[in-house]
Amino acid sequence: MKSIQKGFTLIELMIVVAIIGILAAVAIPAYQDYIARSQVSEAVSLTSAVKGSMAEAFQNTAVRPGLGEVGAVTSGKYVAGMTVVEITTNRWAVVATMKTAGVNANIAGATFATATYDGGQHWTCGSVAVENDGATAFTGASDNTTVNNQYLPSSCK
Description:
It is a single chain. The strands form 2 sheets. A 4-stranded antiparallel beta sheet has the order 1-2-3-4. A hairpin with a 6-residue loop joins strand 3 and strand 4 (about 125). The chain has a single domain (about 10-150), classed as 2-Layer Sandwich (Glycoprotein, Type 4 Pilin). By secondary structure, the protein is an alpha+beta fold. The chain contains 3 helices and 6 strands, in the order ααββββββα.
């Protein structure tokens, strides 16, 4: 008499476990990169939120305003704090520093910057540098950003 197989053999189960292991080995690093990118987006959002009000205050007074003067939110769930680095009177960078705990290890303590070279009319972010009147490169944002390019938004690379 022929017996009918009920269930899976050990080999079939081992193959399934191996496939799941391979998929997990690929998926977990990709997921970690996704988490880091989403955490950096908070820094992008916080620095972008102050651009307009800082530019307006500078246009009205010809003095670079502080973050407190424009009512900026300077910290968040993943951002420890923000500062303004003044390069010259009309050149400055708004720098957000990521927290060292509670964030992805690849961005812990890193900084993200958005910078202007003309009193807030034009802004750069991340590792992007622009030319200032075609003469010298303005690197306010790229000098102050330590977040790896792979975690930056595509517009800031």
